[in-house]
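Q: What residues go here?
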């Protein structure tokens, strides 16, 4: 949209803000904004909490799994209220169970064939770095637990593993939601952070698949296989250090991570000639290292932004 620039007597220039934007960001409560100069552009942003969307969706013909997929996507997008229209008798049970998987969401209303899920947490996501750190540390811990169990007593069951996965995914989605709910001074930085959080979720899913493969098929263990898993975990830990300890030594640490990943690739080729289950297990190990290397690339993009 175009706004008229008004020159003031003291040589300053002013513009008016769109009233809808000002109301959306509660400028009456905190009438202060940030202005960032970026080339030919000025980026105006507010630190006030952002109100998310309120949506109404006709779910009359949906299967149960469709509800979870859609709620997950809209939650990460930042929607604050979702009303589903459906005459299915099990709709309340489905939505009540699904909403419990997402931090802050609850099924708050039912009227006729309308069911409303709403964010009742009131979170403003002001401490995004801490959310990032907690999620990253959870995933490293998840991987460490997987390695200890797979190459240890192998006590984990499929049911408990799925519960672990749900808990980690709750925080991954919460992180994605936090990023989408924040107002960024720099749109590039926002895109980088969301891509980073999405890749973290992918790594978590890969750890889950690795652990599930062992529970279901009982992978043949060897010292070489365990060494591969530990190398992969070190790649993930290095990616964490690159993100949280930004300094002039980062390029060296990135080189170390890539060298480790390349070495893991080579070693995995020899072991991958074993049975199909071992090959599948190794594929998960290598994928985690590959994704960790991608994280380091995104971290450097953010730090140089």
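A:
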């Amino acid at each position: 949209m175009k706004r008229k620039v008004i020159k003031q007597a003291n040589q300053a220039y002013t513009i008016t803000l769109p009233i809808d934007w000002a109301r959306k960001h509660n400028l009456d409560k905190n009438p202060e904004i940030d202005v960032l100069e970026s080339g030919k552009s000025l980026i105006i942003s507010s630190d006030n909490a952002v109100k998310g969307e309120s949506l109404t969706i006709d779910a009359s013909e949906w299967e149960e799994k469709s509800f979870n997929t859609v709620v997950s996507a809209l939650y990460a997008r930042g929607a604050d209220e979702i009303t589903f229209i459906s005459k299915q008798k099990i709709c309340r049970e489905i939505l009540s169970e699904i909403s419990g998987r997402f931090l802050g969401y609850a099924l708050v209303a039912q009227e006729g064939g309308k069911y409303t899920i709403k964010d009742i947490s009131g979170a403003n996501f002001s401490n995004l770095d801490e959310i990032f750190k907690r999620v990253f540390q959870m995933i490293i811990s998840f991987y460490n637990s997987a390695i200890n169990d797979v190459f240890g007593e192998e006590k984990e069951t499929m049911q408990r593993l799925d519960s672990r996965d749900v808990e980690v995914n709750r925080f991954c989605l919460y992180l994605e939601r936090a990023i989408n709910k924040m107002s960024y001074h720099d749109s590039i930085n926002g895109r980088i952070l969301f891509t980073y959080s999405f890749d973290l979720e992918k790594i978590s899913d890969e750890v889950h698949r690795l652990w599930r493969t062992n529970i279901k098929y009982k992978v043949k263990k060897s010292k070489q296989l365990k060494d591969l898993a530990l190398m992969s975990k070190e790649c993930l830990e290095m990616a964490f250090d690159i993100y949280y300890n930004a300094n002039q030594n980062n390029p060296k640490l990135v080189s170390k991570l890539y060298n480790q990943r390349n070495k893991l690739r080579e070693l995995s080729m020899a072991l991958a000639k074993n049975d199909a289950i071992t090959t599948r297990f190794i594929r998960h190990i290598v994928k985690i290292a590959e994704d960790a290397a991608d994280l380091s690339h995104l971290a450097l993009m953010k730090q140089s932004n």
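A: Context that may help when evaluating the design: Residues 37 and 95 are 45 Å apart (CA to CA). The chain has nine helices and eight strands.
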